[in-house]
Design brief:
binds uridine-diphosphate-2(N-acetylglucosaminyl) butyric acid; 14 helices; elongated; four-stranded mixed β-sheet; alpha+beta
Length: 435
């Protein structure tokens, strides 16, 4: 028996209303969990989302000796003082790409780390060459033993000048974190500028790190010693991917929807594209209101290419592709980050969208086309949520298998969507229909 989301479509009606709260950033919290290994004392974190990936990360940390205590909703205390194991449990590590964020802190703390090729959503090759090359420059010896990578720097890491050939969120973060406890100064060039990177760096600086210009392409880290939290709490930033996805949903099916507890500045480009398309959007410091459905003219098409921050985030490419199926005219979407992140569009075509895939990275969408309900299989976290959005605007009842994948990224998604008027239930399902 499997479970699935069952969604009654609105057949194009724009009736959703109310407030949808945004939770803490998945990809911020995961890295903050990993960074706990840089500390001598316990680190307190708040605004941590209650999602499966956090549970996996907590398991991984426990398996290496970190004590992980949930102290209330979204609040965790992580104490690394009994951490001792340097081998990442392959079973857990393979479930999640974010396991690589532990490499840097473990190598910096113990001079050794062993890990399998990291898992995660299949979006393309997702290599780890930048990590290997970066840590080699910092003095680590890297080998492959028993299907695991082993990195050793028994005398500690040393500062290095590292130029990333492509901007990588994971490599920037974990090498930056390791450099905090390296000897000397590390310079990271062509670094990722995602807000999660800069926000955590700012907090680490409050705890004794000396990181300069995180959030710009050139980050300079002066090595220090272990960090001390001294009772401080790291408050994780709101999830900009949830924010952008809820915006796409509200623009398609909302009468008046407030996306609350977010940072509009982190989804600035998405907001501007929707406004150009004809969606009425107003922002405050931490809310985005989508309204005016009744007086709206046909939506205008637009094209975008995914890009490292502050460009258009690859993780909201799929919800925006769903949006463009309802715009009048032709739009082109170019996925520049991951080479296999457009496969889900075949299912949108089965729902009635007019999408031509030119190559692995580019599609053309002609709209508007009404969507029809379908039985779908969530292929990854983000395309999974895009299917939920497609099902909400479609005509008829859709069944979306693999809700567990969607749970990896979104806390209580059905409760939050139901509260603004989406008809969504989680059901046990057999092969052909709902039980
Ligand atoms: N890359 C390499 N070599 C490496 C590392 C990366 O060539 O050693 C390439 C990747 O193949 C990709 C590009 O660099 O083409 C960028 O990948 P990046 O390393 O930035 O991605 P990541 O750190 O693995 C994080 C998020 C992803 C998000 C990307 C891009 C986490 C846990 N994951 O992945 O989020 O799509 O950045 O913004 O932070 C998700 O949350 O669903 C998700 C996939």
């Amino acid at each position: 028996m499997r479970s699935a989301f069952v969604i009654e479509g609105l057949a194009g009606k724009q009736v959703l209303s109310g407030t949808i709260p945004v939770r803490g950033a998945k990809n911020g919290a995961l890295k903050a969990f990993a960074a706990s290994l840089l500390f001598d004392d316990a680190l307190r974190l708040s605004n941590v989302p209650d999602i499966a990936d956090i549970a996996h990360m907590a398991e991984l940390l426990r398996s290496i000796g970190v004590s992980v205590d949930e102290k209330g909703k979204g609040v965790y205390v992580l104490d690394p003082k009994n951490a001792e194991n340097t081998k990442l449990n392959p079973e857990h590590a393979k479930k999640m790409r974010a396991s690589v964020s532990l490499i840097g802190p473990l190598l910096a703390r113990f001079g050794e780390v062993s890990f399998p090729h990291p898992g995660g959503c299949v979006l393309g090759a997702r290599p780890i060459d930048l990590f290997v090359d970066g840590f080699r420059k910092m003095g680590a010896v890297v080998s492959e033993e028993n299907q695991a990578y082993v990195m050793r720097a028994p005398n500690g890491l040393r500062g290095a000048d590292i130029f990333f050939p492509v901007q990588s969120v994971g490599a920037t973060e974990t090498i930056m974190h390791a450099a905090i406890r390296a000897r000397g100064t590390t310079v990271l060039r062509n670094s990722a500028m995602e807000p999660e990177v800069a926000d955590l760096a700012e907090f680490l600086n409050e705890c004794g790190a000396r990181i300069e210009r995180a959030g710009t392409p050139t980050v300079v880290i002066h090595g220090t010693d272990a960090l001390r939290a001294n009772g401080k709490t790291y408050t994780n930033i709101p999830d900009r991917i949830e924010t952008g996805s809820f915006l796409a949903l509200a623009a398609l099916a909302g009468d008046e929807v407030v996306v609350a507890g977010c940072n509009p500045e982190h989804v600035r480009l998405a907001i501007e594209l929707l406004q150009k398309s004809g969606v009425s959007i107003e922002t405050t410091e931490n809310t985005i209101t989508v309204s005016g459905a009744k007086s709206r003219k046909p939506l205008k098409p637009f094209s975008f290419r995914t890009h490292e921050y502050p460009g258009f985030a690859t993780d909201i490419q799929a919800p925006f592709t769903v949006f463009l199926t309802q715009a009048q005219g032709e739009s082109v979407v170019f996925e520049t980050i991951f080479e296999d992140r457009l496969q889900y569009t075949q299912d949108l075509t089965r729902m009635g969208a007019d999408i031509t895939q030119w190559n692995r990275r580019e599609i053309m969408i002609k709209g508007p086309t009404p969507l029809r309900a379908r039985t779908l299989e969530a292929p990854d976290i983000r395309a999974g949520l895009a299917f939920v959005i497609a099902a909400v605007i479609a005509e008829g009842t859709s069944t979306i298998f693999n809700p567990e994948l969607i749970d990896r990224g979104y806390e209580d998604i059905e409760e939050r969507l139901s509260a603004i008027g989406v008809s969504i239930r989680r059901k046990a399902v057999n092969g052909s229909g709902v039980v």
